[in-house]
């Protein structure tokens, strides 16, 4: 009985974590559970990977099957690894020493798990923000616009996109119509006329915005940003 | 929560969810070494105010509404200074300009000649681009416009701006070795983006400005690295590269007495027409809410049948067409506005009676 409701709470926490809405308590709960059951082969780990897979499919990303066995074998390999400073104090009072060591290691390994998760998250973000180049066209990998947030509930922090060092085309980029689900997106090959038109209207607009004068120099920077219209 | 529900919410925010997750997870993993102020030691407040908030915004403990109330006077003054500074100061500097994942550096020179602002902008990265432009001539402005010279200068303009955005003072920060006050303009509806502007305490010049999409996503950041306030020489305002584009307006024919042939059946609240210009192949209508702006182009462009949107940096363009008396017109709405709004505006254009 109590097991069922515990499991349900865990699932809720997990899906909150997927949405980035988990509070600290929920994250603690999840980490504790994954610690207890072994992160990779526990029910929780499987569920997490299923959620991620499902979300990837919904976003229309290419997915590769996740081999849970790999994580398990890595865990096993780590477990088999002899601990540091072997032999030195092994002979003297083994029992007490072992206990002390494991007490010392436990918080550290927990931190390591969290660090791994954070690292994975960073990688994930960078991948999502790097646009895929297809010739001159860049398909926006961006998720559909989040729902508008009402006036005063905007978050107090700003999410600055990670920079990417690759040279980016300054030509306007066509954005395929947004569709729900992984429906194939129709790529429109832009004609030179279309590109010229888009470039021209963007420059004209920026010059007009500069005249209004409420945004300082930024519109000038935007107006100059595009490549020179090829005559 | 059901699985379906979860998936739906996930896809909607896929981009931000991982980052948000990172923000939540990081302080946990490094609890021992993390900063203690407002940090993980207080689990109740942690989700709202993670300790690794954007560094330029000092965490504020003052409640929201008091901040807004006390800020409204101060922001009024600040906004007025902002507009004054751009119109009266001469300066040169180096600037970084970022948008979604890319950054460029540029050199800017701003001078005042015969009451006009002359601006030279040269990109120092990427393909060489340079442009000298003059602004301040009011020749194409609609008579009786809501924004006579600069939206923020007149009382009416200021009031309009404040009915569309809530202004908050977010603290102070140092930009280009100068002290600034950080001002946030928070949109009151979903049809415009927010802005965060760091205003130089001494001169009122905007030294940094960010365009903010919902959920705090930064679309664009313009930031001085170095600023020099010495008067600008004529030489500095001359283009430095032979490639420099001439001050355009080449497309725009004389804009005297242009009557708009078109009107918007719907426009997001607060956006008022500020200019109409004739183009060689159509007309261009400019709308502004005092801070953001969008431009509607209605042109006869044969063989231009694309319907959809294009982006460059923070600027979105939505293209569509309308048929009037058997003639096809291409409608393009361009601006730093949400794409949905651009689409709505494009669908709302009709011929004026």
Sequence-ordered SSE layout with sheet pairings:
The complex is a heterodimer of chains A (231) and B (353).
Chain A: H1 2-18, H2 24-37, H3 43-58, H4 68-80, H5 94-129, E1 132-134, E2 137-139, E3 173-175, H6 192-212, H7 218-225
Antiparallel strand pairs in A: 1-2
Helix pairs in contact in A: 1-2, 1-3, 6-7
Chain B: H1 3-12, H2 14-29, H3 64-88, E1 91-99, E2 102-113, E3 116-123, E4 130-135, H4 155-164, E5 165-175, E6 178-187, E7 194-200, E8 206-213, E9 217-228, H5 234-237, E10 262-264, E11 272-279, E12 282-288, E13 293-299, E14 308-312, E15 315-324, E16 327-335, H6 339-347, E17 349-351
Antiparallel strand pairs in B: 1-2, 1-9, 2-3, 3-4, 5-6, 6-7, 7-8, 8-9, 10-17, 11-12, 12-13, 13-16, 14-15, 15-16
* Low-confidence runs of chain A: 86-92, 115-155
The structural domain count of chain B equals 2
Largest interface: A-B, 102 and 135 residues
Strand order of the largest sheet of chain A: 1-2
* CATH architecture type of the largest domain in chain B: Clam
Percent strand of chain A: under 5%
What characteristic shape of chain B results from the CA principal axes?
globular
Structure report:
The complex is a heterodimer of chains A (231) and B (353). Chain A is mainly alpha-helical. Among the domains of chain A are: 2-78, no CATH class; 187-231. Helix content of chain A is 54%, strand content 4%. Chain A has 7 helices and 3 strands. Chain A has helices at 2-18, 24-37, 43-58, 68-80, 94-129, 192-212, 218-225; strands spanning 132-134, 137-139, 173-175. Chain A has a two-stranded antiparallel sheet. In chain A, strand 1 and strand 2 form a beta hairpin. In chain A, helix 1 (2-18) runs parallel beside helix 3 (43-58). The relative contact order of chain A is 0.06. Chain B has helices at 3-12, 14-29, 64-88, 155-164, 234-237, 339-347; strands spanning 91-99, 102-113, 116-123, 130-135, 165-175, 178-187, 194-200, 206-213, 217-228, 262-264, 272-279, 282-288, 293-299, 308-312, 315-324, 327-335, 349-351. Chain B folds into 2 domains: 64-237, outer membrane lipoprotein receptor (LolB), chain A (Clam), CATH 2.50.20.10; 262-351, Phosphorylase Kinase, domain 1. Chain B has a 9-stranded antiparallel β-sheet with strand order 4-3-2-1-9-8-7-6-5. Chain B has a 6-stranded antiparallel β-sheet with strand order 11-12-13-16-15-14, covered by helices on one side. In chain B, strands 10-17 form a two-stranded antiparallel sheet. Chain B starts with a helix and ends with a strand. Chain B has 353 residues and is an alpha+beta fold. At the A-B interface, helix 1, helix 2, helix 3, helix 5 and strand 3 of A face helix 1, helix 2, helix 3, strand 1 and strand 2 of B. Strand 3 of chain A pairs antiparallel with strand 14 of chain B, so a sheet runs across the interface.
């Amino acid at each position: 009985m109590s097991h069922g409701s515990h499991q349900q709470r865990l699932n809720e926490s997990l899906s909150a974590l997927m949405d980035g809405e988990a509070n600290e308590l929920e994250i603690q709960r999840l980490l504790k559970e994954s610690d207890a059951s072994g992160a990779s082969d526990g029910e929780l780990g499987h569920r997490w990977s299923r959620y991620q897979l499902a979300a990837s499919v919904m976003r229309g990303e290419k997915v590769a099957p996740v081999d849970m066995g790999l994580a398990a074998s890595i865990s096993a390999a780590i477990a088999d690894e002899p601990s540091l400073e072997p032999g030195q104090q092994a002979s003297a009072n083994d029992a007490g020493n072992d206990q002390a060591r494991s007490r010392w290691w436990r918080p550290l390994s927990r931190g390591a798990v969290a660090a791994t998760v954070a690292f994975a998250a960073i990688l994930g973000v960078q991948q999502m923000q790097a646009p895929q180049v297809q010739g001159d066209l860049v398909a926006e990998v961006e998720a559909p616009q989040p729902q508008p947030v009402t006036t005063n509930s905007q978050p107090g922090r700003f999410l600055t996109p990670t920079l990417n060092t690759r040279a980016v085309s300054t030509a306007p980029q066509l954005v395929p119509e947004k569709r729900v689900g992984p429906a194939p997106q129709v790529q429109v090959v832009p004609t030179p006329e279309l590109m010229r038109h888009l470039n021209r209207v963007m420059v004209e607009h920026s010059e007009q915005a500069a005249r209004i004068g409420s945004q300082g120099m930024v519109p000038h920077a935007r107006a100059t940003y595009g490549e020179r219209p090829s005559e | 929560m059901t699985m379906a529900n979860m998936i739906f919410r996930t896809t909607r925010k896929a981009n931000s969810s991982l980052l948000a997750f990172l923000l939540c997870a990081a302080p946990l993993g490094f609890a021992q070494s993390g900063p203690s102020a407002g940090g993980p030691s207080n689990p109740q407040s942690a989700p709202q105010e993670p300790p690794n908030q954007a560094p330029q915004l000092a965490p504020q403990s003052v409640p929201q509404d008091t901040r807004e109330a006390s800020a409204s006077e101060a922001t009024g003054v600040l906004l007025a200074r902002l507009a004054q500074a751009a119109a009266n100061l001469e300066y040169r500097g180096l600037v970084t300009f970022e948008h979604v994942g890319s950054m460029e550096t540029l050199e800017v020179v701003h001078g005042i000649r015969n009451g006009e602002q002359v601006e030279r902008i040269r990109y120092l990265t990427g393909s060489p681009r340079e442009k000298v432009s003059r602004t301040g001539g009011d020749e194409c402005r609609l008579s009786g416009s809501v924004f006579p010279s600069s939206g923020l200068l007149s009382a009416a303009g200021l009031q309009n701006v404040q009915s569309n955005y809530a202004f908050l003072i977010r603290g102070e920060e140092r930009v280009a070795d100068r002290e600034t006050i950080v001002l946030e303009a928070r949109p009151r509806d979903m049809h415009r983006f927010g802005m965060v502007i760091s205003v130089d305490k001494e001169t009122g010049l905007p030294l940094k400005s960010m365009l903010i999409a919902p959920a705090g996503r930064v679309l664009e950041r313009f930031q001085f690295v170095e600023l020099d306030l010495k008067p600008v020489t004529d030489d500095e305002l001359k283009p430095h590269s032979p490639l420099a584009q001439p001050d355009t307006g080449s497309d725009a024919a004389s804009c005297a007495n242009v009557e708009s042939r078109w009107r918007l059946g719907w426009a997001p609240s607060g956006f008022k027409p500020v200019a109409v210009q004739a183009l060689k192949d159509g007309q261009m209508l400019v709308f502004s809410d005092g801070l953001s702006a969008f431009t509607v182009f209605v042109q006869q462009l044969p063989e231009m049948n694309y319907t959809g949107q294009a982006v460059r940096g923070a600027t979105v363009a939505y293209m569509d067409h309308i048929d009037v008396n058997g003639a096809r017109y291409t409608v393009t709405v361009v601006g730093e506005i949400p794409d949905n709004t651009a689409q709505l505006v494009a669908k709302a254009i009709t011929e004026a009676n």
